[in-house]
Amino acid sequence: MLLSDDQNDYSKEGAINDALRPFPKADFERWGDKNWLSDVSNAWFDKEGINLDVQAMEISEYYNGDVTVDELIEYVRAWKPGKYRTIYRRQLDELENRWFDLFGFKVNKRYAESLTGLIEDSETTKIAVPF
């Protein structure tokens, strides 16, 4: 992994990840679609949990933006508890995979730092052009 784990995610998904807790299964059935239950981890459900609409209001205050119940439903369909990957981590995974496709080996932190050092140590030269 090239990205530090302490990279903050200030996106709406990041706020939802930080604050969303298990909720009653009846809430999912009420606000979502029963056909989507197979897409959702049972770890999200707790009959004693806080209702989704209440959590949406709490997360909206925490995020300083509007977070809807529909967005919470989409989030729980996409992510299991504790498995969320920040947008930075997902982008980095794509770059690491692309690097492997191009060069045939995985890039590691030491190699990436040495490449970055080459760029930082290089000097820019001005070249006279005829136009």
Describe this structure in words.
With about 130 residues, the protein is mainly alpha-helical. About 50% of the residues lie in helices and about 0% in strands. The chain is built from six helices and no strands. The longest helix has 17 residues, at about 85-105. The chain is elongated and about 70 Å long.
Kindly summarize this structure in a few lines.
The chain has helices at 12-19, 25-31, 52-63, 69-78, 87-103, 109-121. By secondary structure, the chain is mainly α.
Helix content: 40-55%
| Quaternary structure type | single chain
User: C-alpha Rg, in Å?
Assistant: 22 Å
Unreliable stretches (pLDDT < 50, length at least 5) are none
* Biggest β-sheet strands, sense, barrel: none
- Strand content is under 5%
Structurally, the number of domains stands at 2
**Overall 3D form:** elongated
Mean pLDDT: 87
End-to-end separation: 45 Å
Kindly state the number of beta strands.
0
- Put simply, the count of helices is 6
Q: Would you tell me the structural class of the helices and strands?
A: mainly alpha
What is the string of SSEs from the N terminus onward? HHHHHH
